[in-house]
Amino acid sequence: MDKKPFIHPYIPNSVPEVKKKMLAEIGVKDIEELYEDIPPELRLKRDLNLPEPLLSELDLRRHMEAVLDQNISCAERRSFLGGGCARHYVPAICDEIAHRSEFLTAYAGEPYEDAGRFQALFEYESLMAELLDFDVVNVPTYDCRYGADLACGDIQGLGNHMFYGGSLGGFIATRDEEKFVMEYPSRLFGIAAAVYLALMGPQGMRELGTDILQKARYAAMKLAEVPGATAPFAAGKRRIEQVRYSWEELTKETGVDTHQFALRMADFGFHLWSSHHSFLVPQPFTIEPTESYSKEELDEYVDGLKHIAEEARREPETVKSAPHRSVVHKIDESTFDDPAKWAITWRACRKKNENPAAEGGTK
Question: Cα(5)–Cα(154) distance, rounded to whole angstroms?
Fold first, then answer.
């Protein structure tokens, strides 16, 4: 009995008769003929190592939900992470407008052939110019950090969700002078930020900024009471933004480092912190209080830090072996500082796995 042809439910034109007509239309006998220009040694001569497809949409949904359920979002575990990506509140209208089909399907291409999208970009740039008191603002860029003699920053906090570290974008603002404007990079689409700014208005942005600054100052005051926590770059200065703190004193005293401390915080219902390499501040931790959290939650967070700092002095092994009651697990970082085990591409990964003794091996 002949095996029935596989017709993929999610890939169009997978019916054999349709594929045959398409190949005939372009004058080739089979799919392989389309790849004749690629040298044989560069072609994969086996099936991809993938699980069998789930043909039922219901089965696929169950599978994906089970995978996604392994994640812990900031809705379940509070996060005071800093470093440019923080949990700001996103009003429902931002998603409602940004998820409209005319915006979701208009990502690629130049805006000039799409008057509606061009208008939306113009409104975003106009709102940002009012906020920054500049004449010219570029459309968002992929990078959220620039250094130059002009105003620059990021827009993640303007109506953009964290999305596992994504949803970042940068802005550049200058005077209306050709020498500046002609150098502007551009690429992204600032719909959510435009909606957010229009919704908040000048008074709302002023109140939001005041709230965040007050919480940052309050957090700095409370953290100054935690033995072993210091703020090397902020000492004696009035900071109006997030502060990079250090556990260097605690590490010297107890042997507990910042990563071990962060893993123990997971046991208390808080997300791990992280900090940027290179570590300009020894044993760093960066927190960024936002409008999403209350004073009571900040107090609870600092109380957790105090408890673990005291625990590190009494029972350092308890902290070093954390987490104990969390789904967060330790990551094997033994390969991070070994270039022989890095694989930046699948080609490099395959070569190192085929010859681990010579290449260092990787996973």
Answer: 51
